[in-house]
Every structure is written in structure tokens, then in C-alpha cells.
Amino acid sequence: xxxxxxxGVADQLFFIIKDQVQGLRTALGVEKExxxxxxxxxxxxxxxxxxxxxxxxxxxxKLWLEEIQDLCYEMENVLDEWITRxxxxxxxxxxxxxxxxxxxxxxxxxxxxRVVMHRDIAKKVKKLDSRLDQIMKVKxxxxxxxxxHTCDQAPKRVATTSFVDASEIQGRxxxxxxxxxxxxxxxxxxxxxxGPLVISIVGTGGIGKTTLAQLVYGDEQIKTRFDERLWxxxxxxxxxxxxxxxxxxxxxxxxxxxxxxxxxxxxIQSILFDKRFLLVLDDVWTExxxxxxxxxxxxxxxxxxxxxxxxxxxxxxxxxxxSVYLHRMELISDLDAWLLLSRIAxxxxxxxxxxxLKDIGQKIAQKCRGLPLAVKVxxxxxxxxxxxxxxxxxxxxxxxxxxxxxxxxxxxxxxxxDDLTPKMKQCxxxxxxxxxxxxxxxxxxxxxxxxQGYLTTxxxxxxxxxxxxxxxxxxxxVMRSLFQDLxxxxxxxxxxxCKMHDIVHDFAEFLTxxxxxxxxxxxDKVRIENLHHLSWQKTGRPMDPASICDVIGKLRxxxxxxxxxxxxxxxxxxxxxxxxxxxxxxxxxxxxxKEIGNLLHLRYIDLSDSNVEELPDAICFLDNLQxxxxxxxxxxxxxxxxxxxxxHLRYIDLSWNKVEELPDAICSLDNLQxxxLRGCKRLSRLPEWIGNLCHLRCIDLSWSKVExLPDAICSLNNLQxxxxxxxxxxxxxxxxxxxxxxxKCIDLNGSKVDELSQxxxxxxxxxxxxxxN
Length: 773
What we know:
By secondary structure, the protein is an alpha/beta fold. Helices cover 40% and strands 11% of the residues.
């Protein structure tokens, strides 16, 4: 939601202001304004929870939040500009220093430029402070309440029960059979001594976890197998007292006035002693094992064969609870979706009406993409619409524009979202910018998050860990079933790509509409006033620069495929004055205009698989650039000599191009972490200066023509991955490679390295043995 974006931007602002406050005060003369900005933003943050809650129903509040967000982005741009230009002038200062003959009263050219720049920034800061004054006045009109976030403010899930009509469940027979099989399976001796086995059902919100548990709970085989069956709706927070009371009251069939956890646990032990029981804990969220252990230990008194059945959206929760079997819920088929939808939508209708609406109904069922909750919501919606035209309107509408869907579907997904940290919320909601059914490359996604500032911290020493933090955020989102269709690398160790389910994507769009937008098949012009992230991919239609002229100045992300030379104009690049992420994948131009150097805030540029033949020297003015993706640029033969100026560059991909050698200036890239030279057929060697890249973690030379590795590679103490697969010209490794203490994997498959030193033969890098023919 909007509060996550504002909080994230505000965190960055406070960090920048804190870090640079003295310079801002003395150089700009805006001490008062800086203090006011901090104070006002703090007051706004105090009421964000209340404002966000009211924004669902009050359009004025929603517009107010969007205005704050827009201001925060602009404020971040101003501070980013000041820091960047200040550092740039410091680097150039020796070249323009005043001669010794100059008097102290005659400022140098450098000093004049600095004064002009400071004056310009000061004006912008004062203008922002004035805008914030107006926002504060509007805030007072709404009488917001300063609140802290608690579970009482979050949407609550209705408490579940064990009762369900099995005849109304569609497409879950196989799932039920598999779970029942695990519940009635005979215990192994060791497992039986450790207490009841835990079986877990996991999946995204709305996929039918509770329904499956209800179906299993009421099965005749289960009823006869267990002496006691108990159903507890856990939800969030994990309240040990509440759960213990529910177990006692469920077995005794009466209320209890016991108020101490220890007494309740002893009561549970006396009740369940020497009985085979099934305990269902529905909708578990907590990952804190200390909350679970006391209850788990009290349940060890049951007979062998006792079971605990857990439903959760998070695999991490299931593992924390010690699950021996984890059942992942899959989507239902289009046929089952249609049967479920028709059962709900056609309730009470005549046979003639059903036949008339069948075709359009089947198409609507397909749009639900196998998510049972979406099918049920749609079925309930259609039951109230009695004509084919109204059903067609439902089919043609975007799901987030339907009040019924927002009310009944998204609150369930919001529970998963609300459990995320602010940074994770930003990272998740950003994915709305990608088209539906888009295959997202995880490493690219992490670098984009970095470019947007979502992975920065107040601890400067952690900046070298941003990629690792990004992976951690992604894994957390996966554990909450917010991504699907996960593809792993050939070692099955890392997820390399994923997709978002359409309903989850719709939810992300709902959270960020008016800020993130992916152009569809039929739009002619983008008209969203406060748009900050735009994707023009997979549309099948060329992008017309005139169609985005109204929003281009505020864009922080812009993705467009197959852009022609006529479309990539200097005006277009100059207009992208706020852009941080620029995706120009598969574009058809041969030369990148020099105006690219004006994009001061740019941190990520993707030119992969484009026809670019050379990069302009102006690209070396992109002081903040972190990612330079030139993979698959088959016409590219060299890099600019000034590339060493890109001191924040962390990732370079030069795969499958004509580069014959790397410029010496690359040795100045002391933040570089990944160097990809995969498939570079004209590159026969790496220069010795590569040893200067002390933060380098990954070198990919696979399928290149490299003949020899420099000895200096053995000084890369942070190197973790060395990919030499398919290097058929490489016959040996440098002596000392085994001393790379952080190296986790070295791939020699397809190379000619067949003679290793004794120490290399006996070495296993990071616990992963080297691979060779």
C-alpha cells in the first residue's frame, strides 16, 4: 500500500539528511528548511496508518497520500542530485584548481560552479518545504489519528470452523487423498517417540487450504482413525492462551475459566493422555518457535499415530513447526473452475438461462486462473447479474475495478501483504510494473530493487550486501506463496526465474494503481498523472513517444522493448530526468544518443540483445550507475575508455559480444561484484589488473575462448563463483586457486583442465567440489 512506499522513501531521506546534514546547512544555507522537512515528515508518518485505512473509502485521503508520495520522490531526487554533483565536483577539483597567483578574493571557475549549484539546490529545497506546508494544512483538515500498527487495524480473517459441505468442493479429491494418506500412515518408531507428526498444507491466499483441511477433517476414514478430533482457528497473532483454551473447550465441550498457560497445558495433557488425536491448526502465521514449543511438548502424551494438521501461507512456518510432510496446493483446472462457478452463479436459475450464459461463464471461469477464492467471488458476483450483457461487462472489466472483488478477494491477499516489512512491501508491489504472465529473472529483479533504493540501509557498511539482502527478500516472498512457476538452476540450489499468479498480480496493481502501469494491447496513450513506473513490453505494438509525454518527467522506471532509432530521440532521454531503471531490451538502434549522460539518477540500464554497436563516452557520466547489462549485444566490440568513472558499478554483463579486450580503466571499478563474459569468442585472456577488483564475487567466462587465467585472479579474496564451463581453450588453473577461501563453486565442465595440482585435487571450494570432465 501507499504507506510502505512513503515509509521507504522517508527512511532514505532521513538517512541522507542525517549523513549530509552539516554539508546541507553550511553549503546551502537551508538549515531551517532541513529541520522543518524532518519534523513535518515525522508528523506525517505518525498518521499514515490511519490515513491508509481511510483511503479505501475516502478518495480525498487517497489523493492526499499520492501527493505525499510524489513529494517524497521529488525530495529524494533533489538530495540525490546535490550529493552526486558535490562528489562529481570533488573528483574534478584538482583539474580546475586556481593557480597560486590567484588571490583569495578571486574565486576559481570550480568555486563559481559550486556556488551556482548550491544556490539551485537551495531553491529546490525551499520549494519542497513550501509544498510540504500545504500538505500539512490538508492533513489537519482530515483530523487523522496518530496510531501504531497493530493487528486490530489489519483486516481480520473470519474464524474458520471444521464444517463444510463436501458436495460443494470442486477439484480437490486428489489433494484430499494425499493428505489423508499421510495422516493415517503408520509411525516410525523414532518419530513416534518425538510426539505427534506434523503435516502441513501450504499455498497462497484463496487457493483453498482451509477447504481442503475441512474436507479431510470430515472424512469417514479420519473419523474412525482418531479418538479425538480438534479444530482451532489460529490466525494472527499466535495466542498460546487462546489456542490452549480452544483445545480444552473443544474436548470438554464446555467453557473454561482457567487463566494460566501452564495450568491449561496440564489440562490438555490430562485430557489427551493415552488417546490418538488429530489437531487441526488452521491459518498459522508465526515463525517464532518459542511460541510453538510449549504447546507442542504438551501434546506428546497422545498415543502413537496422533497427528497435527497445519495450514499456512508460508513454508517457513511449516518447517518451523517440524512438518514431516508438506502438501503444496496447486490451482484447480479450468473445468473444475467452471463447475464451481456455475454451481454458485446459476443457483436458483432456470435451465434456459444457464444454457444462454454458459459460453461467457466459461470464459470468466478461465480468467480466474484456477484460484478457488477468485472463482467463488466471481460466482457470487454473477449470481446477482441476470443478463448476458451484464456478464459480458464482468468479463470485459478489470478485476480491481470491481468493488465486490476489492471487498471480498483482496482483503484475503492483504493479510499476506500486511505481514511483510515495509521494504518487502515495496519489493512485492513493484512487480506490478511487469506484464501479466511475465517471466521474471530473479537476479535482474534484485538489481532493479537496488536501483530503486529498496535495499539500502542506514548502515553504510551493509551496502556491499545489497544483493544478498535482495535474495533474502525474494525468498521471503516465495515462502509466502506470492510467486509461482519457480525455475531453478541446474544444481537446484537457486531460483532463477518466477511468475506472479494473475490474481496476485491484480492485487499488486490494486495496491499501486496510479503509480505503476503496464501497457496492455489496446492502450493508445498513458494518462495517469502521478505515474512513476511504466512498462511497455509484450504489447505487440510500437511505443509512440508522444503517448507518454505527459508522464515522462516523473518516471523512475521505464521498460520498453524493440525501440527503433526514430523512437529513441534526444528529447525522450532528456525527458526521463527522474529515471533510475531503464530497460531497453532488444531495441533496434545501433547507437545510444549522448543524452544518456544527462540521466543523473540512473542506476540500472538494460541494453541486452539490442543492436547497439558502441556506447557514447557520455555514458561514463552516469555516476550512480550500478548495473550495465550488455548481454547478447552481438555487434558491440569495445567499451568506452572512461568506464572507470562509474565507481558505483556493481554488475557488468558483456556476454556473447565481440569484445576482444577489456579497457584498463575497469580496474578502477572498486565496487564491481559481477563480471559476465559468457560466450565472448574474441576474448582470449583477462588482464592482470583484475586482481584490483577486491569486491568481485562472480566471474563468468563460460563458453568463451579464454586460454589462460591471470595469476592475479588468486588475489580475489571475495570471489565466490568462477564459471569456466565450455572453455575448451583453457588447459590449467593458476597455482594458488585453492587459496580462494570464499570460493563456493568452480565449474570446469567442457574445459580442457585435466591436470590439477595435488592441493587443487584435494580441495573443495566452499564445500562444493569443483567439476570437470
